[in-house]
Design goal:
CATH class of the largest domain: Mainly Alpha
Structural class: mainly alpha
Strand content: under 5%
Helix content: over 70%
Number of domains: 2
CATH superfamily of the largest domain: Tetratricopeptide repeat domain
Number of strands: 0
Number of helices: 9
CATH topology of the largest domain: Serine Threonine Protein Phosphatase 5, Tetratricopeptide repeat
Shape: elongated
Largest sheet: none
Distance between the termini: 57 Å
């Protein structure tokens, strides 16, 4: 439906311009017309940008309920749980994201999971995640920085 695509396009543009409150209204309108995992997850991203992590996590879950193969919702849910200091839960959702993410993007989720393990002071698990991320993308800066940090803890 063209109207829904137009709403999503406008909402994405607003979000990229930092106008999350306006984007939220368009995402909600899109969901009202036709709920999709992308719309729910995008709503969650805008809520997260406003530090409304609990609400954002709920929208990520709504996305997963609609499409359990939508890996980005798992990653974003984990991020929101991470921000809520619910690290153990974040780890579970990052691991679920890893099982769904396309190989060419797995470095992002592996690095995010490494950060979660780092907060749990699970240095070796964090190092393994960062190394796995670099296996897929040797120049991925967050993973490179993670390996350096973990080297300090493990030596």
């Amino acid at each position: 439906m063209q109207q829904i695509q137009d709403l999503m396009t406008r909402a994405h543009a607003l979000r990229l311009q930092g106008q999350d409150l306006e984007a939220i209204e368009l995402y909600k309108e899109s969901i009202r017309l036709q709920p999709t995992a992308e719309a729910y997850n995008s709503l969650g991203i805008s809520l997260s940008s406003l530090k409304r992590y609990e609400e954002a996590a709920q929208e990520n879950l709504n996305a997963i309920y609609l499409d359990d193969s939508y890996w980005l919702a798992y990653n974003d849910l984990a991020f929101n749980l991470f921000k809520l200091d619910r690290i153990a839960e974040a780890v579970i959702w990052y691991e679920k994201a890893i099982n769904r993410v396309p190989d060419e993007l797995s470095h992002i989720v592996n690095s995010n999971l490494g950060e979660a393990f780092e907060l749990k002071k699970s240095w070796m698990e964090a190092m393994n995640c960062y190394v796995e991320a670099l296996t897929n993308n040797p120049k991925y800066e967050p993973a490179l920085e993670g390996v350096i940090r973990m080297s300090g803890y493990l030596n």
